[in-house]
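Researcher: I'd like a structural prediction for the single chain below. Treat it as a standalone chain; there are no partners to consider.
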Amino acid sequence: MAYLAAYDVHQAKVFGRCEETTGIVPFMALVTQVMSQEPYATAKRVFWIVDNGSSHRGKKAADRLTTAFSNAVMVHTPVHASWLNQVEIYFSVVQRKVVQPNDFTDLTHVRDRLRDFENRYNATAQPFQWKFTTTDLDDLLARLDRHTADRPEQSGSSQLRV
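Model: Treating it as a single chain, here is the predicted structure.
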């Protein structure tokens, strides 16, 4: 069984579904589940932030999404950076709060527990409030530059600058 989910970062709302497997068809079923309801159906643009999983990797996947929903825009996170995608934070919580300990008697029990958690999450979650601004980033990069400039290079080593 596979648990697929989409996350609306503005409303802190999860759209989940359990499927027998992963793949293009289950992913597009999730997309349809979300895009067929308001406000997504009539929004000017809906950004789908995805990792590089096989069901939504590359230009073919982006074209498939746009063909099905002209207002949908697929954005891929860099390879090995799916942690940038906020739905991955939700999946991390699911792993800790729902899946472990794995004392399930059957897949129906897993499905029910996932649904119950999703419903509770949607009833209580609040949108994540970013506090790290572009000014904060500029300040951090300047501090890193000062720090690396103050350290003498060691013979035979290289430095990575951010």
